[in-house]
Amino acid sequence: MTTQNDMTLWDMSLANFNQAADKLCLDDGLRQVLGTTKRELTVHFPVRMADGDIEEFTGYRVHHNTTRGPSKGGIRYHPNVTLDQLRALAMLMTWKCAVVGIPFSGSAGGVTCDPKRMTTHELQHLTRRYTTEIETMLGTDYDIPAPDLNTTPQVMAWVMDTYSMHKGYSVTGVVTGKPESIGGSRLRTQATGLGVRMVIEEIARHLKVKLKGARVVVQGFGSVGKSVVESLSSMGCKVIAVSDSQGGAFNPRGINPQKITKHKAEHGSVAGFRGAARVTNAELLEIPCDILIPAALERQITADNAPKIKPRLLVEAANAPTTPEADRILRANRVMVIPDILANAGGVTVSYFEWVQDLQSFFWEDKEIASRLRAMLKRTVAQVAAAAKEQKTDWRTAALMLAVERVAQATTLRGIYP
Amino acid sequence: MPGKKSPWDAAVEQFNIAAEKLGLEDGLRRRLRNTRREITVHFPVEMDNGKIQVFTGHRVHHNTARGPAKGGIRYDLDVTLDEVKALAMWMTWKCAVVDIPFGGGKGGVVCNPEKLSPHELEALTRRYATEISDWVGAEGDIPAPDVNTNPQVMAWFMDTISMHHGRTERAIVTGKPIQTGGSRGRVDATGRGVMLTIVQAAKFLGLDLNGARVVVQGFGNVGSYSAILLRELGCQVVGVSDISGGVYNPNGIDLDALRKYVKSNKVVKAFPGTDAVTNMELLELPCEILVPAAREDQITATNAPRIKPRILAEGANGPTYPEADLILRDNGVFLIPDILANAGGVTVSYFEWVQGLEGLYWSEEEVVTRLQRIMDDSFAAVNAMAQKHRIDLRIAAYMVAIDRVAETTRLRGLYP
Question: Of A257, B234, B295, B402, which is the most buried if we count CB atoms within 10 A?
Answer without folding.
Answer: B402
